[in-house]
Design goal:
Elements: E1 6-14, E2 20-24, E3 27-31, E4 33-36, H1 40-44, E5 50-51, E6 69-72, H2 74-81, E7 91-94, E8 97-104, E9 120-123, H3 127-131, E10 142-148, H4 155-172
Parallel strand pairs: 4-9, 6-8
Antiparallel strand pairs: 1-4, 1-10, 2-3, 2-7, 5-8, 6-9, 7-8
């Protein structure tokens, strides 16, 4: 039985020792990326300052209407694109994989990780397309889940349901990360 949460959010942080080179023109730069589900921003009630945020359509394995979509943090937009509204719609290379910037986040949204900031938010199901050209540390994968409880649903029942999902998570993450999944 699957728990019936409103808009479950799953995100993964992928960071390599060498970082991710964001390229506009020919100057590579290092960026921090966060791979999130298409419902991440809707669940958190965050809208784009410019353009749009990721949607479930962006989670498709083939990509959404813009191919692999990327949303910029406000800070990255100011720092890397000088606050140019024309950044929305351009194509950049992340680890030599093309992505389309579809939106810019408002300045108040810093993410859900206290003390961490990210430049690019990307669809989690597209991680293999973006990371396919970059070797990464096999133990650098983290999986975090946020759920919004339905009225009347308790934290305890949700925690029990998440524990019940662990066997499925383990079976879908076979390989090196399987040894690292804690119970």
């Amino acid at each position: 039985m699957r728990p019936g949460w409103h808009h479950p959010v799953v995100w993964e942080i992928r960071r390599t020792r060498i970082g991710a080179g964001a390229r506009r023109a020919s100057r590579p730069r290092f960026v921090d990326r966060l791979f999130v589900s298409g419902s991440y921003f809707a669940t958190l009630g965050v809208n784009a300052l410019l353009g749009r945020v990721l949607t479930p359509a962006d989670d498709e394995l083939a990509g959404g209407p813009d191919g692999t979509a990327a949303v910029l943090s406000y800070t990255a937009w100011k720092r890397r694109f000088n606050g140019d509204a024309g950044a929305v719609g351009i194509h950049v290379l992340l680890d030599r994989a093309p992505v389309t910037i579809v939106g810019v986040l408002p300045p108040f949204f810093l993410g859900t990780e206290v003390g961490r900031t990210f430049d690019f938010f990307l669809p989690g199901r597209r991680a293999s397309a973006v990371l396919s050209t970059t070797p990464f540390d096999q133990y650098s994968t983290w999986l975090n889940i946020i759920v919004r409880l339905k009225p009347g649903q308790t934290v305890e029942s949700s925690a029990a349901a998440l524990r019940g999902l662990q066997p499925e998570l383990r079976s879908t993450t076979r390989g090196v990360t399987n040894r690292r999944l804690s119970t």
